[in-house]
Structure formats: structure tokens, C-alpha cells
Write a structure and sequence with these properties.
Length: 255
């Protein structure tokens, strides 16, 4: 584990990391993108995973010294370099530890282009609006975002041929996509009345089955779902008035 202590001064933060340290929490789908790479490459001995709480939380002085955005995940390197943003972190880990564990290299320019395309769709069109499933939001804005999520799922269904985004080859798009699908699969049927995420999206359903059958994929799914279960038990969707909004018949919620 990284030798870090709470509330350390920003100037001394980088020198405290004896090995690369991922700051993340299990429920995070963006963090799940990075954890999947770590687990598939079997590099837990080389890369530590810590909660931002060890530095005082996301908005602490120590954490903001590493990532002024105050967001996670964040990878802190022993040389003092800080790498925020899940796409950057996942790509770095796959490159840095290329010779360890599973490969995320794709064999052709076409597969590499598709992999990047799916990552872009995820990062540009899904991640910015995924909060509509669980954050405070005006009802019309939420309804529109849920509709857009459904549209992007349809787009992805036409791109993902299975068993992985790159066919038989695992890529970084897989690391990005399935943790967010975990959020959707848990939330949309339970709280927005969807029949099933994959009933009209069979290619995505085949893809999900392949990831779920992978022990490492299943591990990340379980980490995220355990966190979502804690949200459910705490009444998150009721407390934020989301269930009251979904009860309004002027909007469509299920796609």
C-alpha cells in the first residue's frame, strides 16, 4: 500500500508515494475503467488503490494539489507526476505495464479506430449526462438526458459485435464501457421502468454476457453494484425526488 497519511501538506504529497497510487472508490464507474486494467494485468502488487479520504477527501488541500479539478480517479506517480482522467490513466497503465497480464493492444488500424470511437462516444456523449440517473436535476432536463442515454445505447448496439468491442480482442473501450453499463443496468429498470437494458439491444446483451462471464469483469461489476445497493438502501432516488419525477406522466422514462 502507498505510504500516505491524512492531511499532509501539498508540497510533500508526491514524495510520499512509493509506487503508483490510484485514488478511487469502488462505486465509481470511471474508476472501474482503471481498476479493470489493473486487475486484468494482475498488477495490484505494483499499483496501489486508495480512497481519496486518505488525503482528506476530494476537496482537501492535499488532493487538490494533485488534481485541481477535485475529481477522481487520479493516478499519482512516485516521480511527482499526477495523472487525472480515467481515459488517460487506463491508457497509461496499459502502456506502462504492456508486458504484464492481459493485453489491451489491438492488431489492426480498423480495430484500434473502433476502440477509440467507442471510447469517444462513452466519454463525450454518455459520461456527461449519466448523472441524470441519480443526481439532483430538473425534471425536463432529466427526461431529455434519459432519452439521450437510450439513443447512445442504440448507437453502441450497432458498433459492438462481441464478444468484445474489438471482436475477439479485448481493448480499452471495454474497460470504459461495461462499468457504465453496470450503472445503467442497475438503475434504469429499477427506478425508470425500463423492461431490460438489452431486450432491444441484443448485441450489447451478448457483450454484457461475455464481460459478466469474465472473473475480472464480474469483480468490477460487483464492486460497483455493491455501492449502488448502498445508495438504494439509503433511499437516494426517493430523497432526491427522482421517483416523484418519474411518476409524472408528461415525460417518457422507459426506452
Amino acid at each position: 500500500m502507498a505510504t500516505v497519511v491524512p492531511q499532509i501538506s501539498p508540497a510533500s504529497v508526491p514524495s510520499r508515494f512509493e509506487k503508483p497510487t490510484l485514488f478511487d472508490v469502488p462505486i465509481s464507474n470511471n474508476g472501474g475503467r482503471c481498476r479493470f486494467v489493473i486487475y486484468k494485468k494482475n498488477i495490484e502488487r505494483l499499483v496501489a488503490i486508495e480512497s481519496p479520504k486518505v488525503l482528506g477527501g476530494l476537496k482537501s488541500e492535499a488532493y487538490l494539489a494533485l488534481n485541481p479539478q477535485g475529481l477522481m480517479p487520479l493516478l499519482a506517480l512516485p516521480d511527482g507526476t499526477s495523472l487525472p482522467e480515467s481515459q488517460v490513466i487506463a491508457a497509461y497503465l496499459a502502456d506502462k505495464y504492456r508486458d504484464e497480464g492481459a493485453s489491451f493492444d489491438l492488431p489492426t488500424p480498423e480495430l484500434r479506430a473502433k476502440d477509440m470511437l467507442v471510447q469517444r462516444i462513452h466519454d463525450q456523449y454518455i459520461a456527461p449526462i449519466q448523472g441524470a440517473m441519480y443526481k439532483d436535476m430538473e425534471v425536463a432536463q432529466r427526461a431529455k438526458a434519459i432519452e439521450r442515454l437510450a439513443f447512445q445505447l442504440d448507437v453502441l448496439n450497432g458498433l459492438v459485435k462481441g464478444p468484445y468491442v474489438g471482436g475477439d480482442h479485448l481493448g480499452l473501450a471495454d474497460a470504459a464501457l461495461f462499468p457504465t453499463l453496470t450503472f445503467m443496468r442497475f438503475i434504469l429498470p429499477q427506478f425508470f421502468g425500463w423492461e431490460d437494458l438489452f431486450v432491444h439491444r441484443q448485441q450489447l446483451g451478448h457483450y454484457w454476457a461475455a464481460i459478466e462471464a469474465d472473473p475480472v469483469g464480474a469483480k468490477v461489476i460487483n464492486e460497483i453494484e455493491s455501492g449502488l445497493e448502498s445508495w438504494k438502501e439509503a433511499g437516494r432516488w426517493e430523497e432526491r425526488g427522482i421517483m416523484d419525477q418519474v411518476a409524472q406522466k408528461d415525460y417518457r422514462w422507459s426506452f
